[in-house]
Amino acid sequence: MRRLILLTLYLLLGARLPLVGQGELIVMSYNVENLFDLEDHPERADDEFLPSGSHRWTKARYERKLHQIAEVLSSAGSLTHFPDLVALVEVENAGVLRDLLSHTPLGAQAGYAFTVTEGEDPRGINVALLYRTETFRLLGRRELPLHFPFDSTKRTRPILEVSGLVPTGDTLCLYVCHLPSRRGGARQSERYRRYACEQLRELTTRRLEGSGGHTHVLVLGDFNGAPEEPATREALGSRPYPESGGGTLPPRDTLHAELYELTPRRAEGAPPGTYCFRGVWTQLDQIHASRSLLGGGRLSYVEGSAEIFYRPFMGQPSVSSPFPVPFRTYGGAFWRGGYSDHYPLRIRLRYERP
């Protein structure tokens, strides 16, 4: 309760500060772990997240989670404004986002609008984008369903494509994704993630071709695999951005969609990944940027700003890890009352006004 009171005071103070970005955009990707409403949607397998379901998902728990998400997002902002663009993974529908923006202090102060998919995932989970209308003017959005030619029965989350104008007048296009899970084994499920990344590669290539350097791309979300796995390195064609070499880009490779993975810096005390399972940390959550954002232009990635966003209240001690693991909402069907089973990612983009 004390933390929620402090959050409210922080947001009220923020209302007196200029919310227009001062040369930087803050971009986040956050898997919020099963943000379900309290309604029964008969066409989806959401029964466990009902008051009468196995998870005992009550109004009090739902409201608590909304405030926890708002707390994380407000903590990830600067002294003058909130994160400008937030990719959210594992949200059920537009209703939970309306509640996030109306039941917490976040909505009144941050100036967010949102767009969310209505996909075919059997459980009904989707991906979404929160965006501050002062720094991102929506141009268009579309959902891109994933239908697998080798498995006509498989249903999963669509890719969300959102494009908008940033303060430079350039177009920024974001692809928010939650790739197929590793259920059934990493090797057995890899072909689904590989196919999804092949689709992303085609989409980003078409978007960047003929843009004249004034269209930029970010691909972000939960990839359900590490950046070095074949789905990312081969199918998506994204390579590590060589920040350790001073950000010098390798020669242009026309066989790739010109995407680079923004590897989070490993600062002292930083988490070794965004997700921890039985003591093993992995980087399931990723952000990939087009080459056009890495050349120091009028809209460009701030060198070294990619990080796993962590604050002590978001983690808890574990006997399986020397670093606090994400303080999750549920462990199986047991309610733990935490924030999420993932830590979010955060980057900054610098812009110059025309």
Return the CATH architecture: 4-Layer Sandwich
Mean pLDDT over the full residue set = 89
**Element-by-element helix/strand order:** HEHEHHEEEEEHEHEEEEEEEEEEEE
Helix/strand structural class = alpha+beta
Superfamily at the CATH H level? Endonuclease/exonuclease/phosphatase
Question: How many extended strands?
Answer: 20
The helicity comes to 10-25%
Number of domains: 1
The main β sheet shows up as: 7 strands, mixed
- Low-confidence blocks of residues: 1-7, 9-22
Quick one: CATH class? Alpha Beta
CATH topology-level name: Deoxyribonuclease I, Chain A
C-alpha end-to-end distance: 44 Å
Taking all Cα atoms into account, the compactness measure Rg is 19 Å
Strand content: 25-35%
Shape: globular
Number of helices: 6
